[in-house]
Amino acid sequence: MVIIYKANSKQEQQQIDLRLESATSAFQNQYQQRSYYLQAFAETAAKDFGLKEVFDADARSFLIALNNHRKRIDADLAFAVNRKNLIIGQLFRTSAESKVKLGPEQNNQFRFPQWFDAEKATSQLYLLEGQVYQLSFAPLKSGQQVVGWIGYGYQVNGSLAQNLANVTGLNVEFLLSKAGDRWLNLAAASPYTTGSPANPMGQLIVSGNPDPTTFHTSISLGEVDQQDLKAAIYGSRSSLLETLRQNLWQLMVVEGVTILLALVIAYNLSGTISKPVKELVRQAQYIARGNYDSSVNITGKNELGQLAQEFNLMQQAVLVREQKINHQLRYNSLTNLPNRYSLLETLEELCASGSPGCTLLHLDIRRTKTVNDTLGYDTGNLMIKEVGKRLSELNKEKMIFHLGADEFAVILMTTDQMQVVTWCNNVEKFLDPPLCGDGVMLHLQVHAGFAKAPMDAGNAQLLLQKADTALSHSKREMKAFLPYKAEMDADAGRTLSLVNDLRIAIESDQLQLFYQPKLDINAGVVRDLEALIRWRHPEQGMIPPDAFIGIAEQTGQIDALTRWVIREAARQYNAWVEEELLLSIAVNISAENLKNQNFTAELEEIWQEFSLPMDALTLEITESAVVSDPVSAIGMLCDIQDQGIKLSIDDYGTGYSSLAQLKQLPVNELKIDRSFVDKVYSDPDDQIIVRSTIRMAHDMGLSVVAEGIEDAETLEWLGEQGCDKAQGYFISRPAPAAEIGQWLKEKDKAISANA
């Protein structure tokens, strides 16, 4: 009897060890997968060019961008630290609150700068307002230089504990060490309230005084703010070992019949029990190493057979959960295509294999935001899925990846330039048939940039960065696709530098207005000028407006820039009035200005501050600015006209506005773009366009200005067609106010002398 009892006790302990070993393996796998997922996403966000552009912009713009990335994985904590270890972005939420709040450490020094010493992605535990977060940081780089760190995290809370309890089949608690060898219940899967002594089980386990009625283990998860974070895993001994103890009673009854028969039966039964249990132990060890391809083969309808069956079911459940987690980690949920994590894995394998080389294409679908804003996100998602489907049909190797949002990547197993260009051309053809979405025919178009390995980069991260740089240039230059070139890195660094320098330029004395005259063709005099902004950078010299206007619009600085231009033009107007030069100055405004609800009030303040007559300044707006949101744009322009301010449509003919929209615009003037004027003297088609535009504008009561006059013949022809004003190098190049003022005075003297 003693021998049987000891054998049964040993089997009990083996069963407990098996259950704890399996639960520990499942727990650690699930917990580490969450950490890997956070790290992969932080690295993905840190590569986003849009996030880099607003990294040092105004806090609101950056926090919006940071929160947009947080929403993608529903993170509980978002972090941004600049290279001076200042927290410039901290958004968080707790289990009790679904609303995201600005973190209490915003604009404070980061407490753990040593985490960033290796300049690599790092995963840590972080304590914030009594809550612990799993947090992963990734470096944000400009070229090879780290300019800051981006991090995202999930809270270690009851939801995590419950998920892990479901995976392990046991109770799970998280505990945080406190002063005096005390432990705080941080979170639990059980119904007890966390953070109080109401549920002492986990505290007893980590303190080394466990309840003998439980089987248990504890796992150290790391240190946070010099406090240990541990997980306690436990279950009831009685419920687990009930079947084995029933076996013991049966053996004792059999032993009472006859000692000899009991010995024989004991011998036989010990073999039938220990062998299956040993097989279960071996199988648990096999599973603990991450293998799920075999099951326990114990036949019979007894308790051990049932236990083996339950063990196999548990093994399959763990396998299904792990497969689901791995799939979510490597595949995009919208298109079911491999994601950025899979792309980097594949590229690393290719780079390490010594293959002849490959080409990585980074593609971005055009006009996705417009489709989302106008037709809704369902239609936008339909467009994204269709592009993924067509790309998959085109690439026979099936090496298509969906990086998120409207971005895709393709790996071509060639570095031949002609083959890559041919494939890009085929992409345009495959995407050419329109997609019908929400009753609207959607034209599918992409921008693409590509880089080659090993010529352009020898590792996955760098190759993706080079392709992304080429993509940014293809967008900027409005090209379908562009190859990576080394000089693009310098351009990217220069753009990032301009983002930071522009704010300083607006506040200091680096900006300057040049003025270009508009000639009254009939009278032969100049009464109007256009103000054109220039930037005298202290290190880079004169920077043209095309290089920084777009940056100002993207980073939210365009309102401050426009305000500076209008104020400077107003000041110069008054200065010329004192010199007895009565001139009207045209100032360009952006489509982004029309989205500013305070814009009309700001204009009124400037007119009052400088005591301007209403016709002192004219505001010029391009027709493409009206196309993007015609209803609100026209409404804003009507408010401006109601104030008495003159308006002009700039670059007419280059946008996509309809005549129906044009007739609704409250404008006084129409400017014909230089692309129609350059060759108008010799090109019959341009003559038809310009002549009909002048006639149409006059019929609508608008005056007409022609831009880009380069010779006397063009000026004469425009005068014959009834064009009101002319602007171009033939009349005068743009020049600083002092030079233009002198030029106007000399021209007035010449007119007086000839009178």
Structural write-up:
This protein has 755 residues and is an alpha+beta fold. Among the domains are: 47-155, Beta-Lactamase, CATH 3.30.450; 353-485, Alpha-Beta Plaits; 510-534 and 557-568 and 585-738, EAL domain (TIM Barrel), CATH 3.20.20. Helices cover 48% and strands 23% of the residues. The strands form five sheets. The chain has an eight-stranded mixed barrel, surrounded by four helices. Helix 1 packs antiparallel against helix 6 and helix 6 runs antiparallel to helix 7 (259-288). The chain is elongated.
Topology, pairings included?
Layout: H1 2-46, H2 49-53, H3 59-73, E1 77-82, E2 87-92, E3 101-102, E4 122-128, E5 131-142, E6 145-155, H4 158-168, E7 171-178, E8 182-188, H5 201-206, E9 214-224, E10 227-236, H6 237-257, H7 259-288, H8 303-330, H9 340-353, E11 358-365, H10 368-375, H11 377-394, E12 400-404, E13 407-412, H12 417-431, E14 435-437, E15 440-442, E16 446-453, H13 460-476, E17 481-483, H14 487-507, E18 511-520, E19 525-537, E20 541-543, H15 549-554, H16 558-578, E21 584-588, H17 599-609, E22 617-622, H18 623-627, H19 630-642, E23 646-652, H20 659-662, E24 669-672, H21 674-677, H22 684-699, E25 703-707, H23 712-720, E26 725-727, E27 735-736, H24 737-754
Parallel strand pairs: 16-17, 19-21, 21-22, 22-23, 23-24, 24-25, 25-26
Antiparallel strand pairs: 1-2, 1-6, 2-3, 4-5, 5-6, 7-8, 7-10, 9-10, 11-13, 11-16, 12-13, 14-15, 18-19, 18-26, 18-27, 19-20
Helix pairs in contact: 1-4, 1-6, 1-7, 1-8, 6-7, 7-8, 10-11, 11-12, 16-17
Domain HAMP: 271-323
EC number: 3.1.4.52
Protein name: cyclic-guanylate-specific phosphodiesterase
